Amino acid sequence: MKRILEVQKQLVPDLLDVMKKRYTILHHIMISGVIGRRTLAVSLNITERVLRGEVDFLKSQGLLEIESNGMRITPAGQLLLDQIEPMIKEVFELTDLESQIRTTYGLSQVIIVPGDSDRSFFTKKELGRTAATILRKLVTNGDVVSVTGGSTIAEVANHMSSSAPIKEAWFVPARGGLGESVELQANTVASQMAQRIGGQYRLLHVPDDLGEEAYQSLLQEPSVKEIVSFVRNCRIVVHGIGDAMVMAKRRKVGEATISMLQNVGAEAEAFGYYFDNNGHVVHKMMTLGLQLEDIQETEVVIGVAGGQSKGKAIAAFLKFGHEDILVTDEAAALEIIKYAP
């Protein structure tokens, strides 16, 4: 297959460009469920006239249908996407990039989706869909799955489903609330994942950042102590990775802390820990929930993050060395390779 694609690039390069374009259109429609032509044109950064021609072709092939409220993929279109998915990675030249990142950072699996989450909400949705597919294959009855919050992991929750309920799977927040939108908090994400696959969940109702006195006091509360122990004994962790300065400002930390993080070269944040460019921990927030030693002992750790702006942060966290599976996008992957050790 790879050799055939190389020949096509040399003899009929336009063919691959057309394939990429039509795949991207069909894939965006699939992710959206139903979408209007104007909205899709804006998302793909193409004119409505160009999109109309491609949509007419795809409709003539029976791959999509046009309704009063927008365009929808047909069963034939869904089948086609499923069939060509392995080949698409070669078309977008992502297979070699996945292998390079996997080998360089010592990961067991790397999945790269086309695009840039910074520029396209559809790419972020695809990150969530892809990570949800991986997670569904891993979760079994009796598992405890610990999840962080944030918009990307919320997309994972949005795409979770199961043909049969996994009634004895538990979903828990990796840590307390971040003080952001309720729908993006780890508690909400954990409960949504559980509901979507017919599992169970437990919540951790404590602030994200605590003072020393409050931290020690809460640890003595039997109910808090019990749920924290439950969280820390998870088999699977699903987490996001953030840019250190962006996350510090979102958490409204003081100027002194921000200055300190800049001075020590903080690049990435995950689980309330800040990492420098070499993957070393340079700062830790006082938070209840998963601790770094728990991550090191967890059987499966899945990182889900994308966007060119996060590439350097993702690379920094990967150098910490305890990630198993990475789901990212093309733009971030290219940056991750730039900052390889």
TrEMBL record:
It comes from the Bacteria. Residues 18-88 form the CggR N-terminal DNA binding domain. The keyword DNA-binding applies. Residues 90-337 form the Sugar-binding domain. Keywords: DNA-binding, Transcription, Transcription regulation. InterPro entries: CggR_N, NagB/RpiA_transferase-like, SorC_transcr_regulators, Sugar-bd_dom_put, WH-like_DNA-bd_sf, WH_DNA-bd_sf. Belongs to the SorC transcriptional regulatory family. GO terms for molecular function: carbohydrate binding; DNA binding. It comes from Paenibacillus albiflavus. This is Uncharacterized protein.
